[in-house]
Amino acid sequence: METVWTRKDLLSLYDLSADEIIFLLDTAEEFKKVSERNVKKVPALRGKTVVNFFVEPSTRTRVSFELAEQRLSADIINVQASTSSLKKGETLLDTIKNLEALQVDLFVMRHASPGAQYFIAENTKCGVVNAGDGAHSHPTQALLDLFTIREKKGHIDGLKVTILGDILHSRVARSNIWGLLKLGAEVTVAGPPTLVPREFESIGVKVCHNLKDAVRDADVVNVLRIQHERLNASFFPSDSEYASFYGIKPGILDYMKPDTIIMHPGPINRDVEISSAVADGSRSVILEQVTNGLAVRMAVLFLVAGCVKK
Ligand code: CP
């Protein structure tokens, strides 16, 4: 495989070409084979130090990055924002500069402020991987979603993908939209008008406010979490009201094609945006998404580390 990757940072799928995204997915496919071997560890990042710097909570992303780093034989530092000198007023940039002075190589960062990782990437020679910045971007989540769709459907070009739920506050939605459009999918965003405003049409997606219409032709339905932590106003009357109009429950499966797959990035609000019967049912690929996240993050770390020049 000839490399088309030249970036020391992965900040957003918006910045990438279709060829770069496909190259990342193809590389992840190779790392998935490594994860299925008896010996799952490779020496690709031996001698490199990766700092996991999560200023927002995470389970899946943080743990799978750390496991990916272990599988690549990197040295790993986990910085907890709550016990770091950020709490004493040190700036984010000063924190990064001090860690850089310890000759680390890569930062994997989650931050509540959109663009924080762009700012850091411009101000460090280390590589920066965005593990989620506010409501803006979550590129490795979108890559693992694309990987899972391609694995299940054999291709992405021409597929109809519905992203359902809190689109307004979702970095996962934005990242999926950018990636899916670049790879030739048709994207519909669906949910209540307060969380899915018509303005989204300007980026090339369809907007739908009726659940049955939104899922009828879909090959993939990606259900998003209601992000209570980002809802600073009343966007719908109650969780039960949301569940009754937009929740994915067994009855709604009858309106879908028989081979439609159901995705969710996690964490799930069970019986709000998706019922347990569907989340744990035969059409759900939710835990396969998590498994694929490891291969995707190994690929991302491997490729960006190869472009860090210090
Ligand atoms: N999907 C996702 O980003 O999950 P975490 O917040 O647990 O990392």
CATH C-level label of the largest domain: Alpha Beta
Determine Rg (CA atoms, Å).
19 Å
Q: CATH topology of the largest domain, anyone?
A: Rossmann fold
Number of helices: 11
Shape: globular
Give the spatial strand order of the biggest sheet: 1-5-4-2-3
What can you see in these coordinates?
With 310 residues, the chain is α/β, with parallel strands linked by helices. The two termini are 26 Å apart. Helix 4 links the parallel strand 4 and strand 5. The chain has two domains: 9-138 and 291-305, 3-Layer(aba) Sandwich (Rossmann fold); 139-285, Rossmann fold (3-Layer(aba) Sandwich). The strands form two sheets. It has a five-stranded parallel β-sheet, sandwiched between helices. Strands 8-7-6-9-10 form a five-stranded parallel β-sheet. The chain contains eleven helices and ten strands. The structure holds phosphoric acid mono(formamide)ester (CP).
